[in-house]
Every structure is written in structure tokens, then in C-alpha cells.
Amino acid sequence: MSDLLKIVVVGHTNTGKTSLLRTLSRDEFFGEVADEPATTRQVEGMQLLLSDGEPVMVLLDTPGLEDPDGVLDLLDRLAGDARFDGPERIRRFLASPEAGTLYEQEAKVLRQMLQSDAAIYVIDSTEQVLGKYREELTILTYCAIPVLPMLNFVADPGSREAEWREQLARVNLHAVVAFDTVVYDEIGERRLYEKLRTLLDRYDEPLRRLIEDRRRHGEWLRRAASEYLAELLIDTAACLRVVPGDLDATKLRERILRNQDDVRQREQRSVDALLRLFRFSDAHYDHHGLPLVNGSWGMDLFNPDALKYYGLRMGGGAAAGAATGAAVDAATFGATLGLGTLSGAAIGALLGTSLPMRRRIWGRLHGLSEWRVSDETLRLLALRQMTLIRALLRRGHAAQAPLSSKADPDDRWTRGPLPAPVREARLKPQWSRLNPDVFDPERGDRQLAVQRLTDQILADLVGPHAE
């Protein structure tokens, strides 16, 4: 651990030092974050790991600098007329009685500074540029290690980023990074590590590997999240429940509500998986139940997509047309038509269809109905999950307010046809985990459909909505 790069995070009280460590480490439980001064009272540390578990850096959280004016005065008094360099001034301060009493918090910070390779000086960019910050910077430069100012909360409308950059340049600090610990910015994080590389030649290689690792991890996160959503949509689109036609109203309602609850639970499992993927607890998501309205009876095997699909399976020509026509007639007149009234050619073609088609037509002729999730509900599922994924991609681990499950409008999912893999899933009950009696996880066509849909969702995530 002593050979690892040590970065100490310092700054005035309540500027977001602990929040920064939470976001960089993807650990929402590190330290204590609260909207009150002096939350951190001790130096706390953590190792920053690469995706393979290799430690690459030690990050150290410190208490806030509460009285820089008093410390600076004491440093001057202890030095007197002697021409001590910066580190010697700090060591004399740490050896003084005041370091263990009046300035105990500042002593903890400066002691850790002398033992570290560099410091990140966290600034609340919404604060006015006051003299106390200039005094803090003067004290920190005495420690003779590189100091990288980091402007926090730059996404806040009240940010004074330009003023802070001007002031930092006046004290010869030109390497400044803007990074928001609440509204996470992947590019901002990369710039932070790049700036550290320019200040720390000795640690160029581990910092380069960290930057590349974070880039690959971001790509993996987006694809994994897209695949979770693709699995949800395939499972839901392929969900098929056969409902007997002789159920009374009460039992029918119970059956529908049970089906709806299964879909809601499937969405909740997807939400839970996404939160785990991004390393957030469920406290970060204010989940509201999916507002299914009567599920949907709308799409069964007699819709145009299904007829086209099964017609192609039967081949071209008159036989296919006859069989399709028989299916349409059966759908129109139900069991009152009966197979006995069909022509011999049509019966032969019908009996030659695929087994799933024959079973479903037979069930329809005998009074069975099919319950499915409507297209509108599928669109809502997609919108809610896309909204959640986008929010998680830009959420820092120090954020406190929970995300809402309210869906944002999205032209891709509110207009036009559903993606082809979703429409195809309508015809494949074997693709859905919500149909446990027939679900086959090893089907190659399902796996291919999930990957095709994953690619489409991923394209949406990295497109115009990604910014």
C-alpha cells in the first residue's frame, strides 16, 4: 500500500470532499454526507481499484479546514524572522501545542498532506470567492506537493466557475478541473485523472491504466444496462396467458390482476438489477407501480403480424392463403363457425400449419382467450427503464434525492412501430420467463433477438439523449 499513489482530498468545511470519494469509488456508503459543517472529523481512506481488483490509488478524506486565518497567523509567529521553507513551517506547526488543541482539525489535514503524493483541493463553486480560500491555498502550498483545485457542483445554476478559475490563476494554479459529485460526468472524471497525470510523472502508468479501465467500464455499463432492458421487453412482449372463456366476472378480474402483478414484479426485478449494476441501493429510486390498465386483450394470434408470420411458415401459394383465410374466419366468428364448414382444401392447409398455430386456433375455437401486455404498456416500460438508465449514468454516488420512475417523453419509443425483436417476441411465448411452462432459455433465436434489441437500445443511449 505504501507504493500506491496517495491522493489526499482537502478543502474548506462542507465543500463535498466525502461526496467526491463516494463518486470516484462508486461507494455510496463511504463516510458521512450531510448538509451541515464538519461532518468528517477524522482522516478516512480507501483504495481505488481497477475492474480486475488491482489497487491503483489510495484516496484519503480529511476534515474541513475551519480556521485557515488563525493557522496562517500561527505559522507566521512560529517562523518569526527565520527563513524556513514551507514543509519546515508545517512541521513546526504540527509540533506546537496548538496543533493538538485549538487547531486539531487543521493539524490532521496538514499531517496527511506531508505523507501524500498530491492533493485535490475541493471548492464549492457556488460559494463566493472569499479571503479564507486564498489563505487555505497558501497553507496547502507550504506542504510542497502538487495541488489540483477541483470545482464542485458546477452543474448547479448558481455555480461561479468562471470567477473561481480567474481567482485560482492569480495564485498560479492553472491546472483546474470541474467535476460534479452529484450529477456525474464521465468526461469530467477522465479529465480529473488526466490533470493528475500531468502533475505526477512518477505515476503516469497507473493513472493511464485507471483512465483506460474507467473508459472500458463505462462502455460495459451501458451495454449491460441495455441488455437488462432488452431482456425485460422480450419477456414482457412474449408473455402469453390463456384465459378460459367461462370464467365469471370476479374470477376473470382476479386472473387479470394476477397477470398484471407478474409484469409489475418483472419490471421491479429489472429495476433492482440496474441499481445493483450501477452500485446504488434501492433508496436511490422512488419506484411507482406500473399503471397497467386492464392488461390488454388486444393482440392475439389473429393480428396481421401473426398471420403474416404463420403464412410465411406455411409457404406461398393458395394453400397458405386458404389456411390464413380460415384463421381469419375463425377469429371473426369464433366457435360458431367450426371446422366442419371449411372447404377440404382449407382444412388440409390448416392442419398442415405449425403445432403452436394449430394449438392456438384450437383453443380459440373452444372459447379460450389470450391475455397479453398491450403495446402501450410495452412503450411505457421501455420509457421508464430508459429514463432510469440515463439517470443512473449521470448520477454521482453522493446524490441524496431519490430518482423518480416517471418516464420522460422519447420519440423513439412513443412513435412509430416497436423494434422488430419486440414484435417478433409477440409470436414466441417460449421466449418469456413469464411463461415458465414453455420458457426455453437455450433458444438461439431468443438470444439473437435479445442481442439485436440490446444494440438498438445501446444506440439510443449513446445518441442525442446521452448528453
Automatic annotation (TrEMBL):
Name the GO cellular-component terms. cytosol
Task: Write down the Pfam families for this protein, in alphabetical order.
Answer: DUF3482, MMR_HSR1
Source species, domain of life: Bacteria
A single Gene Ontology molecular function, please?
GTP binding
The UniProt annotation puts the region (Disordered) at: 400-419
Start and end of every G domain?
A: 6-136
Q: Which GO terms describe its biological process?
A: tRNA methylation; tRNA wobble uridine modification
Q: Which InterPro entries match?
A: DUF3482, GTP-bd, P-loop_NTPase
Q: What is this protein called?
A: HSR1-like GTP-binding protein
Q: Which organism is it from?
A: Thioalkalivibrio nitratireducens (strain DSM 14787 / UNIQEM 213 / ALEN2)
Q: What is the lineage of its organism?
A: Bacteria, Pseudomonadati, Pseudomonadota, Gammaproteobacteria, Chromatiales
